[in-house]
Amino acid sequence: MSRKRQHRIAEGSDWTFEELDRADAEIGRVARAYGLDCYRHQLEIITAEQMMDAYAAIGMPVYYHHWSFGKHFLETENRYKRGQMGLAYEIVINSDPCIAYLMEENTMAMQALVIAHAGYGHNSFFKGNHLFKQWTSADAIIDYLVFARNYIAECEERHGVDAVEQLIDACHAVSSLGVDRYKRSPPLSLQKERERQREREAYLQSQVNELWRTLPRHEAATQSGEEVRFPAEPEENLLYFVEKHAPLLEPWQREIIRIVRKIGQYFYPQRQTQVMNEGWATYWHHTLLNTLYDEGRLTDGFMFEFLQSHTNVVMQPPYNSNWYSGINPYALGFAMWQDLRRICEAPDDEDRAWFPDIAGSDWRETFDFAMRNFKDESFIAQFLSPRLMREFRFFAVLDDDARAKLEVSAIHDDPGYRALRLKLSEQYNLGSHDPDIQVWNVDLRGDRSLTLRHFMHRRRDLAPDYERVLEHLAYLWGFAVRLEQQNEDGEVTLLAERMHDRRRGATE
Amino acid sequence: MTVRIVDRRQDSRNKSSINRSRFIRRFKGQIKKAVADAIAKRGIRDLENGEKIGIPGKDIGEPHFRHGRGGRREIVHPGNDRFVQGDQMDRPQEGGGGQGKGQASNEGEGLDDFVFTLTRDEFLDIFFDELALPNLVKRQLARIDEYKRVRAGYTQSGVPTNINLVRTMRSAAGRRMAIGGPYRRRLRELQNELESLLDEASPDPDEIARLRHEIAVLRAKQEAVPFIDPFDLRYSNRVRIPQPSTQAVMFCLMDVSGSMDEATKQMAKRFFMLLYLFLNRNYEHIEVVFIRHHTIAEEVDEDTFFHSRETGGTIVSSALKLMYEIIQARYSSSMWNIYGAQASDGDNWDSDSPGCRDFLADSILPVVQYFAYVEITEAEPQNLWREYEKLVSTHAGVFAQQRIVAASDIYPVFRELFRKKLA
């Protein structure tokens, strides 16, 4: 009896540092046995208050200061104090070493759950998935955030809090148009960042002058062509374009735009892989802890507590429930990974017909393949099985503002499976989720105004916010800014135009 | 390989406090308005707590390019319980909640108020932003004549009443141990020697006598160590530290003659409330004295003060005299900081006004920290105002007066009266 007890982990509800250590060692042993490849990780014990702080700063341990984070903090605090929400059990940071927060108030069972979920689940996903590998520099992000915070604090000292705040407001407003979707940005490095920052100031300033150049030679060249557009090709990364080409910005302003852009870029893969990533982490905490239980290292009490939290996390309320607020990424992701393993290990005829390549294959290999090479959109398009669509009882609703009624366009039946899967996949396509707005033209020879064009897709219009976004953009650009809309027939209409009054801006 | 565990609990707790103060700074305008609204709803003494306030959600939204509601959209929902392909249904009502709420989901504008809780300090900071109590600092520093005695350890000298018995006995015991120790040790040795000598077959009688003598001498010495010695005495020590006065009394003087109607009284109430709240921030303890008057003045409780009506003429000096009497009787010591606030519609018996002015200047203003007069009237300034006006220049810093026409003036007037003056 007593010998067996020694091998048990996470007994009792209070945690100690030794117990955390042992739990982590055991979970890690099982994770390695399953072949999970992780960054080193670091567990940080924090209080509930600090958890709210972390919330407000999107989980990052270091972040620049801005009122909007204060707003998030107040919001969280208010809801937490009123008991409307519990705090998330875990926040994990995609860095190397990977940092996972453990909240002081949690029981030992919850801590073990978080260690398995964040320390091994998310961690291995960050390390393996191609988007994270390609787009984020896990080893440099913390350093970069430190650099960013210090740089912005310095700017606040030099140029005043108000000026910096106005700039960051403007950057945040267009930050959704601040990511490169297709080309990889160079890895971050703190030292290079510092070294290059000064060079860049000088260089950028010299580049901008292109917009000012009004020498006759230049004019002669452009007059020969019909109409020369600048940029030659439409540019989708608006923040990048502003950083490089806005005529009147000071070097420090360009640097701050770059900081907001870089951090936005860092978070972009997380938005693209929510279902996969959360599902993966949930699948692995479930598997790792169940394996430990089967080995006799966890008590029944532990498992009850663990399963209760687990089932809460993966609950999917139906569309007509009061609790419904869209598809729960934890539920869908967890179910898909579980289903994928089932297809590998115990396929039925339907699975063989739908997934001839993977039915009956080695599940760990298939898992790795799927985890490494997909994002939500393609993962769903590839791996969502008819059985799961039936289990979730998915149905698609078509909302066309030209028609008086909504229509159910597909349900979980034979004719509907493929359409349904495609529609769900499309729902996770960030490309169609965010409006398609591109930098169309700069009037180089005239008033230097910037023209954006919104390419309508399925006649979807823009929320009225755009007027305020344009004001922010006009502030950044320094001259008039126009927003055009091109519908699917190619007709172009002018939506709005904003002029930035620089004299007022200067005195403010 | 063991995992690295970092305990961050002791790290700075308020990482977000900068962001929080930035937020408050940015929306100060809206927050101030919300705070002013909140104040109107509260009772005079219950302005102590933090306040949950709401500011318009649209003001603080962060705009983004997003899709609107138009066009063709297809959304996949879970939990189908009745639909087959091709079913048609009505659009769910906006914000209907419950049934079919999904369709109206994540694109809501968030026009609800953004509600959050200000701490008491933040609340009062905003409320009294840029205000200062006149003469507060000066008086506090210049007139410290209250002292408080506090314990400050122990001394070796003092008066017998202050002897600290425990400390004294402790040091006596220590001294006895220190001085008696060597004797005791030697005594033990001699006694052992004596016993071993006596056990011998043929003890040496001289040696025994010598040992017995030495033992007797040591015993005498040991008993000569005094049980208590003047050296042991310890006295509790107390020191006097200056005690700035932390209490204030606030006199609310109001005219309840026939010319003051309910609305005017409500305005006066708001003004008194502000003053109470403001003083409360600066003093630990505040008493409020309500004096109402028509031709004669009387001290009343809060409820009567604000709600009962009287009719008749007006003699303001009666209230001032009563205030002076109360100060003499109850608040004469220097421990009290005295503030007076008088609200009236300015209507006074003509020949009384000069007397009011003189009485105020001679008797009241010298003993109070500040006296503020507000005249609540839409008409021309009345005779009381004109008389008081002469005091403004001669007693600058102690006396001030302002006019209130509408409820919206109250706060600005209050701010004007207590505005921070540059030194």
Task: Based on the model shown, name its key terms.
heterodimer; A: 508 residues; alpha/beta; 9 strands; globular; B: 6-stranded mixed β-sheet; 13 helices; 13 strands
Widest sheet: strand ordering of chain B = 10-9-8-11-12-13
Name the overall outline of chain B: flat
| Strand order within the widest beta sheet of chain A | 6-7-8-9
What is the average of the pLDDT values of chain B? 77
Shape of chain A: globular
Q: Give the class of chain B from helix and strand content and strand pairing.
A: alpha/beta
Estimated structural class of chain A:
alpha/beta
**N-to-C SSE series of chain B?**
EHHEHEEEHHEHHEEHEEHHEHEHEH
Structure summary, number of beta strands of chain B? 13
Average pLDDT rating of chain A: 85
Low-confidence stretches of chain A: 1-5, 216-225, 503-508
- DSSP strand tally of chain A: 9
Radius of gyration of chain B: 39 Å
Biggest sheet statistics of chain B: 6 strands, mixed
Low-pLDDT segments, ≥5 res of chain B: 95-111, 137-144
Largest interface: pair, residues per side: A-B, 103 and 71 residues
Oligomeric status:
heterodimer
Number of helical regions of chain B: 13
